[in-house]
Amino acid sequence: MISETAQAEVLEFGHGSGNLMRVNDLIALNHRAGLRFGSVLLQILPCLFYLLIASQPNTAAASDLAEEFQLALDTFQKQYGFPGATAAYVLRNGTVGIAATGVSDLESKTPMTVQSRMLSASIGKTFVGATAVALAHEGALNLDIPIARWLGKQRWFTRLPNHDAITLRHLLTHTSGLPDHVHLESFATELSHKWREKDNPFPPEALIRFILDLPSLFEAGKGWAYTDTGYILVGLVIEKATQKSYYTEITERFLIPLGLTLTTPADRRYLPGLAAGYTSTDNAFGLPRKTTTPKGEMVWHPGFEWTGGGLVSNSRDLALWGSALFAGHAMSSPYLNELLNSVPISPDTPDIQYGAGVGIYRTGRFGPVYGHGGWIPGYSSSLRYYPDYGIAIAFQLNTDIGIVDDTTTVIREMEARLAEIAISATHGLNKGR
Q1: Helices (H), 307-409
Q2: What pLDDT, on a 0 to 100 scale, did the predictor assign at position 63?
Q3: Of 160, 162, 287, 293, which is the most exposed, with the fewest CB atoms less than 10 Å away?
Q4: How far is CA 3 from CA 187, 348, 413, in A?
Q5: d(CA 117, CA 381)
Q6: What is the pLDDT of residues 39-79, one digit of tens each?
Q7: How far apart are CA 109 and CA 22, in angstroms?
Q8: 332-350 pLDDT, tens per residue?
Q9: pTM here?
Q10: Residue 417, pLDDT score
């Protein structure tokens, strides 16, 4: 079943057909201009045919990579038994590869395809961080002054822990000292009672309500603790500063310019192309095992994630985004220094850091790694970029069973193996250029 439903696609940029087009153009030009250009054409043609031949090893290496990448994805699906997955890579030379395996719906046995979409969860924070950095560069935001400048007039503001000291940088790097509503029992209980509501039961300010009047975890800037609530506040600041919706901002700044056509706001129950997700029946939020109805609508409204994540996407789009963002090509002005301005998440692990919506491993088997993981009930995602090799890799699984509670190592194993395959293959690809 795996071999029948798994799919792979490789797109090569700058090879093959482009060389043929130049040959045809020259032949047509020679025909129109007469025999006086014949000798010039005869001198050029051998060079052009050499380019055609030289591109063949590159194409063969790309094909080998695509096959090995697909085989690895199939093997992981068989070994761990998850319903389905997609995975993609973008290499430094512009090669894009996409693979899919398993099913997007266990009940209907619908195959997972390279076009299948899933909730990308906290990978959406990379868009939040990039937007904040862009606005700071434009002078619309300042990352290092208290957020009271934008939110101080809200009636609830003074009830925020550390409200008088928190800056945007604190929020972006998870150093604000704010609790995380996602892990509060009060949020889990209320979500278990409200997930059936047709509309979003938790707009942004309703999420902030869960942490009001709670003690701070530490003084702002004096520690590190992951908090989705902090990113909800960043979203409110962005909207206040721009007078636009957050989703309009990222659509205009990134999604359209970068051609991320399969990435859209997760702000409604019906999300076209969404694979069904599967979660544990005893999950903390009392949600159903399957995320979708037979008609393809989500059984709960995903909009409450908002700037904590808030997107439905595809592995190809995520890899393209990671490649553009971390290679410095997502904006017209330099921004990487600000995006990667990071803090250690613990004194015990100084090489593991967090920047503006980006996790950073300063050292590792393949050198530094930039990226983010994503979890939401029913879906697990990973985006990683290896700057020493210029390679971005993303994958998505339509389950979180065994992943959210760390009882399986599938995510770590997939990250390591897929990186090994792509990085090892780059030698052959570069050799053919």
Answers
A1: 315-326, 336-339
A2: 84
A3: 293
A4: 42, 44, 21
A5: 11
A6: 433 344 334 333 333 334 456 667 899 999 999 999 999 99
A7: 46
A8: 999 999 999 999 999 999 9
A9: 0.86
A10: 98
Look at residue 257 and tell me whether its pLDDT is greater than 80.
yes
* Residue 292, helix vs strand vs coil: strand
Helices 17-33 & 38-80, crossing angle to 10 degrees? 160
pLDDT band at 34 (very low <50, low <70, confident <90, very high): very low
What span, in angstroms and rounded, lies between the C-alpha atoms of 290 and 268? Answer: 17
Letter for the amino acid at 79? Q
Residue 303's contacts (CB-CB under 8 Å, 6 or more residues apart) are 200, 203, 266, 267, 268, 310
Neighbours of 2 (CB within 10 A): 15
Q: Count how many Cα atoms sit within 13 Å of the Cα of residue 233 in the half-sphere of its side chain.
A: 36
Architecture of domain 84-431: 3-Layer(aba) Sandwich (3.40)
The token pair at 119 is 């909730």
Do residues 6 and 99 touch, judged by C-beta distance below 8 A?
A: yes
| Of 236, 403, 369, nearest in space to 307 by CA | 236
Can you read off the two tokens belonging to residue 120? 């990308």
